[in-house]
Amino acid sequence: MTEVSREEATRYWLGSYGDRAGSSRTIEPIHPNCEFLGWGRTVQGKAGWMKTREQFLAAFDPLEVTVVDLTCSLEVVSGHARLAAKHRRSQREVDVFFSFFVRWHDGQIIWMRSLLDTSSLLAQLNLLDLKRWDAIFE
Questions:
Q1: Under 8 Å between Cβ of 26 and 49
Q2: pTM given for the model
C-alpha cells in the first residue's frame, strides 16, 4: 500500500464512521488483533471497534466525521478530524475535533490512537461546569 493509498483509505475509513448503512466500510480494513486507544476507552479488534462505533451512533444522530488534515509517514497516517453531531437525548448539536494516528500494515489497520477534545464535547452537552475551572488554580 502506497502513502497516497493509505491517506485515501484513512480519509475514507474515518469519513464512513457516521454512515449508518456503511458498517462494512468501517470494519473491513481492521485487523482482527487491532488495538484502539481513545475516545475514553481501549478496545481490541473488530468487535471492540464496532461496539464503540455503535455506542456513538446510538448517542448521536446525525453524526459526521470530516478529516481536516492528514500526513503520512511510512505506515502511519496521522491528522485531525472534526466530529459534528446531534446528541439524541439532549438534542444539542456538538462540533469537536480529534487527533488520530492510524498504523497500516498489509492493507489493514493494526493500531489506532485518537484524542478527542472531551472537555469541549462535555461543555457543548452542558455536562461540564465551566465555573469550576477556576478551582483548578486555587
A1: yes
A2: 0.85
| CA angle 50–79–81, rounded 5-degree value | 60
Cell of 38: 481513545
Phi, psi of 46 (to 5 degrees): -65, -40
- What integer pLDDT is reported at residue 1 of this predicted model? 63
Amino acid (1-letter code) at residue 9:
A
- For 20-51, write each residue's pLDDT tens digit: 776 777 888 999 999 999 877 899 998 998 88
Q: Which of 110, 53, 100 is nearest to 79 (CA)?
A: 100
Distance of CA 64 to the CA centre of its chain: 10
For 45: left if phi > 0, alpha if psi spans -120 to 50, otherwise beta; the answer is left
Three-class HEC string of 10-67 = HHHHHHCCCCCCCHHHHHCCEEEEEEEEECCEEEEHHHHHHHHHHHHHHHEEEEEEEE
Report residues of the chain scoring pLDDT below 70. Answer: 1-4, 22
